[in-house]
Write a structure and sequence with these properties.
single chain; 251 residues; alpha/beta; 2-enoyl-CoA Hydratase, Chain A, domain 1; six-stranded mixed beta sheet; three-stranded mixed beta sheet; 10 helices; 47% helix; globular
């Protein structure tokens, strides 16, 4: 589900869940947390690259596993998720996303937690959380406006439309476009620049730029935990799994 590799002073974490197009199921999130905590403690590692196997970065959350039935379990679900977000955003190591193919939903959230996003020219992005009766999570309500501004972020969040790589670069969602199939190598080339950089200023810069994250995550946990229990989320989940349009009632 998650493979780990080391190239010099760079750790490569590959999302590998082919039957769900690298969906961020809870076991995947736990493995990411475990890997990132080990990387954080390793002073010989200077950078992290996150990518996806099989030509897809991530298709988002594992909707089949969204079976929250009470408020307490909904809130508990975010304990692990927010540990992951904080490790990516507040951790001392710079993190680079290497995106091929689809990068949507929670997959987009993970990419936006990264310091740099390198994407193939045929990559596609979207934040269609509303289609399953939820708000954006994994810190996306904090990270995306910080990258592209509130006005453009509103368009991404409210409409949930597909965004191609050229548009994503134009609005600042991604940092570099490369030829299809070369995103990982391009990300590794960027990561290598940190091998000889002083690590403490980088860590402190990341900490400073994370201002406001904790308040956003607290709101996210409270709001999403309630939305998990709504009829609209149940309808959105059933419609997605049944491959049909949802019919929402606002309840």
């Amino acid at each position: 589900m998650l493979t780990e590799e080391r190239r010099g002073a760079t750790a490569i974490l590959t999302l590998d869940y082919p039957e769900r197009r690298n969906a961020l199921a809870i076991p995947m999130r736990q493995r990411l947390v475990d890997a990132l905590e080990a990387i954080e403690a390793d002073r010989d590692l200077r950078a992290v690259v996150i990518t996806g196997a099989g030509g897809t970065f991530s298709a988002g959350g594992d909707i089949s596993g969204m079976n929250v039935t009470d408020l307490a379990s909904g809130r508990e679900r975010f304990r692990l998720t927010h540990r992951l977000v904080r490790l990516l955003i507040k951790g001392s190591k710079p993190v680079i996303a290497a995106v091929e193919g689809w990068c949507v939903g929670a997959g987009l959230s993970i990419a936006m937690c990264c310091d740099t996003v390198v994407a193939a020219d045929d990559a596609r992005f979207a934040a269609g959380f509303g289609k399953i009766g939820l708000v954006a999570d994994l810190g996306l309500l904090h990270t995306l406006p910080a990258r592209i501004g509130q006005g453009r972020a509103r368009q991404v969040f409210l409409y949930g439309e597909q965004i191609d790589a050229a548009r994503a670069e134009a609005i600042g969602m991604i940092d570099h476009i490369v030829a299809s199939g070369t995103a990982l190598q391009a990300a590794l080339d960027r990561a290598a620049l940190f091998h000889t950089a002083a690590p403490l200023p980088i860590a402190m810069t990341k900490q400073y730029l994370a201002a406001g994250l904790d308040a956003a995550l607290e709101w996210e946990r409270d709001t999403q935990s309630m939305l998990f229990l709504t009829a609209d989320h149940a309808e959105g989940r059933a419609a997605f799994l049944g491959k049909r349009p949802p019919v929402f009632g606002g309840v």
